[in-house]
Specification:
about 400 residues, Rossmann fold, alpha/beta, 16 helices, formyl-coa transferase, domain 3, 2 domains, 3-stranded antiparallel β-sheet
Length: about 400
């Protein structure tokens, strides 16, 4: 296998759950050496989250943890102890990148704030991913994805205007913040190569959401004086069908046909039912803005006679941009994703061979790989502490007894 893009880059991760672990996973799967620091006996919070193989909860077999921590080395370390802080700082002296997702106040109390770690290693890039960032009146507030999505303005744009706003699903904000952190870290590494100096990267999850909402929404507000973009499937000045979801025989189809020729091809495929000749159903703006459910009901019988697969093949053949709504089983068995090599497998003794999502990108030259399965809790203590930092096995026994590792 060719040399990976980030081979030789050393990363220390002191984070938990999704944002920091996913940020470093993106680096580890490209060859960076990532040392994941976990609290003794407890470990990363994600170890408690399913799914679990055979639906049997076990901290070593969390699907979320296994996915987020591929290609990493794992050690245990109680950073709240003075000895633990000393050991972590020893790791940071030789690191290129330090990624964490703790509150600024907590990192300051541990002496692991950026000014402190910069004194240890001026080349170090420190990437901090938090709900509200390192500065500002909310900086030390705790928050979950629903909070950041809300305060970032995105929830205000999701759902129907006559109901409460919704939030983005599946910790999406954590993942988006992680991707932003990884991208910014790559830029900082390039700058560091040129200058020999590190820097602090401050990623706020609420800021990440706000770039999506404010970047589009603020222009709408400025030019159209509209405070809410929440339209659900309805209206917004589009032509029918702009964003309709119609049930079919075994699920749902998503419809969007902004071009008249797309809509016309679809009507031809249906056999141009008699109702399509009525003036009421020839005004596509009115159909979308004023009575889309009425048109949905006219289309539904034709869709309900056909499966997602049958419909998708028909639409593809006729150049109509309608697509099925996939569930997890559909996604895992999708021939398109399989042919593109999206999924990867990796084996671990206690889980067997499992299938994982692949990288969210493809390089023509630079290989991506799951270099090793996610680590067991403290799996690489001896390798890192003894071979890297010079501790003896007797030292490790003493550190365990003292609750340090």
């Amino acid at each position: 296998m060719a040399k990976q893009a980030l081979s030789g880059i050393r990363v220390v991760e002191y984070g938990s759950f999704v944002s920091a672990p996913y940020c470093t996973k993106l680096m580890a799967d490209l060859g960076a050496e990532v040392i994941k620091v976990e609290t003794p006996d407890i470990g990363d919070e994600s170890r408690n989250h399913g799914p679990f193989p055979n639906d049997i909860p076990h901290p070593e077999r969390s699907g979320l943890f296994l996915y987020l921590n591929t290609s990493k080395f794992g050690i245990t370390l109680n950073v709240k102890t003075s000895t633990g802080q000393k050991i972590l700082k020893g790791l940071l002296k030789d690191a290129d990148v330090f990624v964490e997702n703790n509150t600024p106040q907590f990192m300051n109390e541990l002496g692991l704030d950026y000014p402190s770690v910069r004194e240890l290693n001026p080349r170090l890039i420190m990437t901090s991913i938090t709900p509200y960032g390192q500065t500002g009146p909310y900086s030390d507030y705790k928050a979950y994805p629903i909070n950041c999505c809300a305060i970032g303005g995105v929830s205000q744009s999701i759902g129907h205007h006559w109901r409460e706003p919704l939030t983005a699903p599946l910790s999406m904000g954590h993942y988006q913040a992680a991707v932003s952190g990884a991208g910014a870290t790559m830029v900082a590494l390039l700058v560091g190569d040129a200058t020999g100096r590190g820097q602090h990267i401050d990623i706020s999850e609420a800021d990440v959401w706000a770039t999506y909402y404010v970047g589009f929404g603020i222009t709408i507000h400025a030019f159209g004086a509209r405070d809410s973009l929440r339209k659900g499937y309805i209206g917004g000045g589009w032509t029918y069908p702009a964003r309709r979801v119609i049930p079919c025989k075994d699920g749902f189809m998503a419809l969007c046909a902004p071009q008249l020729k797309q809509w016309t091809r679809f009507l031809d495929l249906m056999g141009n039912p008699e109702w399509t000749q009525e003036p009421r159903y020839r005004d596509r703006h009115a159909m979308e803005d004023d009575y889309p459910e009425e048109v949905d009901a006219l289309l539904a019988p034709w869709f309900l006679e056909r499966t997602k697969k049958e419909l998708f093949e028909l639409f593809e053949k006729n150049a109509i941009p309608f697509a099925p709504l996939y569930d997890m089983e559909d996604e895992a068995n999708d021939p398109h994703l399989s042919e593109r090599g999206f999924f990867a497998t990796i084996d671990r003794d206690d889980t067997g061979t499992l299938k994982y999502p692949g990288a969210p990108y493809k390089f023509s030259k630079t290989p991506w790989a799951l270099n090793r399965p996610a680590p067991l809790l403290g799996e690489h203590n001896e390798e890192i502490y003894c071979r890297r930092l010079g501790y003896s096995r007797e030292d490790l026994v003493a550190l365990r007894r003292a609750g340090v590792i």
